[in-house]
TrEMBL record:
It is found in: Membrane. GO terms for cellular component: membrane. The gene is LOC117536718. Keywords: Membrane, Transmembrane, Transmembrane helix. Pfam families: Solute_trans_a. PANTHER family: ORGANIC SOLUTE TRANSPORTER-RELATED. InterPro entries: Ostalpha/TMEM184C. This is Organic solute transporter subunit alpha-like. Coiled coil: none annotated.
């Protein structure tokens, strides 16, 4: 019995993440090649994004060009930050929060893009002022089928924008607060005690995330049929996939590391090794999504016809059919 209890734990498994130089020193040939390949992927993602920004700047009108630059930069920015976190494990918290803050802005920009593709706020309201929107969509109310449809108005559109914008603002503020507390030793993701700050801040951020995703889903579910010509559905799918990979996947890996499911591998503790695996997976995934985004965003689409033009064409077609019958 005593033999089973006398288990020795490597001191490195209880230490903080190693320094960058310590990581480099312990790399063997395979690890070094892996790190170089992942770094190459991150650099290519960033270069492709910069080239895409130049294309969008030259060929897209303002303000849509700014929105497209923000959205198409989600995968390259996350890949770049993950590369920094892979080489410098002690900076993982800062790189992760930088990626999350950037994506919080992207959530708002996706909503703005759908409105701009329909001609801006005024044209959007003119087009849908006589229509009702369904609000029983995910992630908040997908099961509430009894919710009534609501009429689109300037007031409702304002609250939808505000619901998405609050996440971009509050996420940034809470991230800065978390970093300040972390430098003072008061913020630790592994501290799950009720007196810890992480147990209060992270669930609150989760609630803000759900609230911000709901307005974007409402707009998408009600306008996607009008925007199929600009490949809105695959664009929205990529945005959702980046959300799952950067938020849910990372959270699952961190939970497994905290539970000790991911084994310690000196000089990495269990938590540091989980973060390292998360960064490596993120680089490969974001590299693939960058290539897909390039095909979706590095092109020009025909402008959508206005509501008046659509009505005029419909009336002209009806007149032509009547004359043909006569």
């Amino acid at each position: 019995m005593d033999e089973h209890l006398n288990i020795t734990i490597d001191p490195a498994c209880l230490q903080d993440p190693p320094l960058a130089i310590d990581v480099i020193k312990q790399l063997d040939v395979f690890d070094f090649c892996l790190y170089l390949m992942l770094t190459f992927m991150a650099c290519v993602s960033l270069l492709l994004y910069l080239e895409q920004c130049a294309y969008i700047y030259k060929n897209m009108p303002y303000p849509k060009k700014t929105t497209l630059m923000w959205i198409s930069g989600a995968a390259p920015v996350i890949a770049t930050m993950s590369c920094f976190g892979m080489w410098i494990p002690k900076a993982v918290m800062i790189t992760d929060m930088t990626s999350n803050c950037y994506f919080a802005v992207v959530v708002y920009k996706v909503l703005v893009l759908m409105i701009e593709e329909l001609g801006g706020t005024n044209n959007f309201l003119q087009r849908f002022s006589t229509e009702t929107f369904r609000v029983n969509t995910g992630p908040c109310c997908c099961c509430c089928v009894c919710l009534p449809r609501v009429h689109m108005s300037r007031r409702l559109l304002f609250f939808l924008k505000l619901g998405a914008l609050q996440y971009a603002i509050l996420k940034t503020v809470l991230s800065i607060l978390s970093i300040v507390l972390w430098t003072n030793g008061n913020f630790d993701l592994s501290d799950l005690e009720i007196t810890g700050t992480a147990i209060w801040i992270n669930p609150f951020i989760g609630i803000l995330t759900i609230i911000s995703l709901w307005p974007v889903a409402i707009i998408f579910m009600n306008v996607n049929s009008h925007l199929r010509s600009i490949n809105l559905v695959p664009k929205y799918a990529i945005y959702q996939l980046i959300l799952v990979l950067s938020q849910l996947q990372t959270s699952i890996i961190n939970i497994l590391a905290l539970n000790g499911t991911i084994a310690c591998a000196p000089p990495f503790s269990s938590q540091a090794r989980g973060s390292m695996l998360s960064q490596q997976m993120m680089i490969m995934e974001m590299f693939i999504l960058t290539l897909i985004n390039r095909r979706l965003y590095r092109r020009t689409y025909d402008a959508l016809p206005s509501e008046e033009a659509h009505d005029n064409n419909h009336n002209a077609l009806q007149t032509a059919l009547v004359e043909h019958d006569v």
